[in-house]
Design goal:
The protein has 4 domains: 104 residues; 80 residues, Alpha-Beta Plaits; 91 residues, no CATH class; 162 residues, Gcn5-related N-acetyltransferase (GNAT) (Aminopeptidase, 3-Layer(aba) Sandwich). Helices cover 41% and strands 24% of the residues.
């Protein structure tokens, strides 16, 4: 492209110099003819008139030629471009190369069908190792969209986001990296969400974590990819650790709320860089303390009463305990599948934002009459409801359940499940009214209902 531009520019310069030289020569002839004519009038030469005519004639011819050529060039420059062409193409002279010619600039035609992949490979920590991998990928017509490097003691883990031809199998990408010197190569499908660069993703996750303490497990999952995250309360086996630890595919972090956060990945080891990023999010959560968004929504029940739906947290422990005391043994049995021996222990866990989100429905007087929980269970999500007897069958449970489902969809959950008794007709009816695909499993009187979620269910959840 630089050579083509240089040739075109020089050609235009030559035409410009030709025009200027022609006009200069014509001016010189006119000047000589004029001087000859003046000299003749003064009696200094005998053939002044004949000489002036002889000089003026070629001068006029040269000026006319230059003028005609300039007029034609300008006319072509202002004429409309031909069909399918551009203005730059239309003004190019025959034999010139236009810089805007798509036939020359488009390069080889690419297959419109492409696929996104995330790939990791470990290379030796020496000059040229990364270049060898990128060259091998380029030879297979693969574009590298983003690249992250994770330094190790014995090499470097390079993480790529690739756009490859759709017909190129994953095995071919793995072989390309391995033959170029990579090892322990891992690959999986990616999507448009992976196109966000790493600094932007970290800032987004930090913002989500700062706004809501319940976001920490979700932010860790989005940061580290496909993994399982479990929170173990302090006092239970594995709930108390001396310091953060990284062991290949398992990461253990001290929970600021007390206990341990365990992050586990099936086969892909965590890198020290990922470990440092996860610790930074946990430290941010620790510095900000317990925080629950204060959003509220007012609902009007069929009989005209108004209730407020809001997020609940550890500060609602006393109100939640009073709700349990007002509920009948049958209602509590449906919720907890048996007698409730230590309600405070249950509620401390349920109201902690580390284990999920809780919605509370309260009356105008401020009395909590229902609780709904969205609980993180590893890589699964559980929903649970408790509605005071006097407020049942008024649509409160269904409204809370719909909001929980909307939150689960927004958090990227593929399904939610509810564990109840097969005699709990109210919970079964509420799950059915979600209009979602349901799966039922019954064992020893315990019913597990799993709902498959759809992105369409996310409609302004109360966060």
């Amino acid at each position: 492209m630089p050579d083509l531009t240089y040739a075109t520019t020089n050609s235009r310069r030559l035409r410009h110099h030709w025009h200027r030289g022609t006009v200069g020569l014509a001016a010189l002839l006119v000047a000589v003819a004029t001087a000859d004519l003046i000299a003749g009038l003064a009696g200094l030469t005998r053939h002044a008139a004949d000489g002036a005519v002889l000089l003026d004639t070629p001068a006029a011819a040269l000026i006319a030629t230059a003028g005609l050529h300039t007029w034609r060039a300008r006319r072509r420059g202002h004429s409309p471009p031909p069909a399918g062409g551009t203005a730059a193409t239309a003004t190019a002279e025959p034999g010139e190369s236009s810089a805007a010619d798509p036939a020359r600039d488009a390069g080889p035609v690419r297959n419109a069908g492409t696929a996104l992949w995330r790939m990791r490979t470990t290379v030796r920590d020496r000059p040229g190792s990364l270049a060898a991998v990128t060259t091998a990928l380029a030879a297979r017509d693969v574009d590298i969209l983003t690249l992250q490097t994770h330094p190790l003691t014995d090499g470097t883990v390079d993480e790529f986001l690739l756009r490859a031809p759709a017909e190129l199998p994953a095995g071919e990408l793995t072989r390309a990296a391995d033959t170029a010197g990579g090892r322990d190569t891992w690959i999986e499908r990616a999507d448009a969400h992976d196109l966000v660069d790493t600094p932007t993703r970290m800032l987004t996750l930090a913002t989500r974590t700062a706004m809501d303490a319940a976001e920490l497990p979700l932010s860790l999952r989005q940061l580290l990819g496909r993994c399982t995250i479990r929170s173990t309360p302090s006092g239970q086996p594995g709930g108390d650790i001396a310091e953060d630890a990284l062991e290949e595919t398992v990461m253990r972090l001290r929970d600021p709320a007390g206990g341990t956060i365990t992050v586990e990945r099936a086969c892909l080891p965590f890198t020290p860089t990922e470990f440092a990023r996860a610790r930074a999010l946990v430290e941010l959560d620790d510095r900000l303390g317990v925080r629950v968004p204060g959003h509220r929504a007012v609902l009007t029940l069929p009989e005209g009463n108004e209730i407020t739906v809001r997020r609940a947290g550890p500060e609602d422990l006393a109100a939640a305990r009073d709700l349990h005391l007002r509920c009948s043994p049958a209602t509590l049995a449906h919720r907890y599948h048996g007698p409730v021996a230590d309600v405070d222990r249950y509620l401390t866990h349920l109201l902690s934002p580390r284990f999920g989100r809780t919605l509370a429905a309260e009356t105008v007087s401020g009395r909590v009459v229902a609780l709904a929980h969205l609980l993180w269970d590893g890589d699964e999500t559980e929903v649970a409801l408790l509605v005071e007897d006097a407020w049942q069958r008024r649509g409160i449970g269904l409204e809370l359940l719909r909001r929980l489902v909307a939150q689960a969809v927004e958090d990227g959950c593929g399904c939610v499940y509810a564990v109840t008794r097969s005699t709990n007709t109210a919970m079964i009816a509420a799950m059915r009214r979600l209009d979602l695909p349901l799966d039922y499993q019954v064992e020893d009187g315990t019913l597990v209902i799993t709902a498959t979620l759809s992105p369409a269910e996310a409609s302004a959840p109360l966060r």
